[in-house]
Amino acid sequence: MQTKLTWKKNYFSNLYSIYSNGQQIGKLKDKAFSHIANGELNGKEYAFKTKGFFKQHTEIIDCSDNKVIGSIKYNTWMTKAEISINDKKINWKYDNIWNTRWSIFDSDGMTMAFNGTTTKGRIDSSIDDGALILSGLFVPNYYSQMTLFIIFIAVFVPIVIL
What we know:
Number of strands: 12
Number of helices: 1
Structural class: alpha+beta
Helix content: 10-25%
Distance between the termini: 59 Å
Strand order of the largest sheet: 1-2-3-4-5-6-7-8-9-10-11-12
Largest sheet: 12 strands, antiparallel, barrel
Radius of gyration: 16 Å
Shape: globular
Number of domains: 1
């Protein structure tokens, strides 16, 4: 079954709204510079809790029973990630240099293709897995926040030292 979704987000907003055929079916909302994000898709709720300092990872939690169902591990160069859900390993990566296209894939041929700008995008998936779809949106949002944090440090630390 092919799933086609769209998403929208306002500039400087922390809320992704997810649509199917023009009807909102989900959302992903993070707390800016927090370690927690909450998502919902088709009535199922998930939480993403980022842990660690230098080598961060994110736990994926099914909110219906507050059980950890997976995790996300990030690579140093912020171009790839490994998503593990229910003991299955799935790869996440950017597909172009502008970071406007990214995909999720595994060795069994399961794929999800994402593309978007700062404010809108599309998701094409060969499966309907809410936790995985939300993870696919969470990872580039996490990388954007990390990039802003690095820029902030690079600009303001030299000013404070002087």
